[in-house]
Amino acid sequence: LLAAVDFSNPDFHERLEALVVWIAGFYGYGMASVDVLKAGKVHVVCAHGAQFPKTGTVVAKDLSFSTDVIAAGSSLLLGDTKLQTSFAEHPAARQGYRFYAGVPLMTSKGVIGALSLGDHEPHIFHGDDITILQHIALGIARHTEVLAAGKPVPVLFDQPGLFGRDTLQLLLSTALRRATRDGGAIELALIQLANDDSRTARKCADT
Predict the structure, then answer these.
(1) DSSP string, 2-50
(2) Label partner for 86 (CA 20 to 30 A): which of 13, 133, 163, 205?
(3) pTM for the whole structure
């Protein structure tokens, strides 16, 4: 599958770049990347953040947490690598990474890579937060699979940075829950959709 995908495709790469920039901005910390495993090495397809390997970097597979995600085919969450015995001596942890959240890029032919968020500081990461990464990773995987098949590519996002309705619903509900966990108080939230009525997306708090 990977051999049939041109990750340098301008439109595809522009969308991936917009995604990793948005992910780092949404969570407010860390570095985000899309990685694939080819010929026994991790290829950084797209990255945003000063501390992550740059876009186009190729690293040995044992130096990256994303290799563990790809091998297991499941999400990996390390809130603080210093407190997790099995990862405290991981090469990435020894390079200074205290936090890592990664989800697999799962296609019908198997896992082709990982979507990752990492930081040199530890963080608390909730189930809602990992769900967002999983949702985005699924879109990337589907997009990649269609590209590999040489079919017209359905739009993952209408344009870089513009999310579809399902993604907006997930993002808004998650953002509201994060706000209340952080001590905020939101009474009402609305999503205004083009050619659609205003609808209550979620009532999150009473005060």
Answers:
(1) GGG--TT-HHHHHHHHHHHHHHHHHHTSSEEEEEEEETTEEEEEEEEST
(2) 133
(3) 0.78
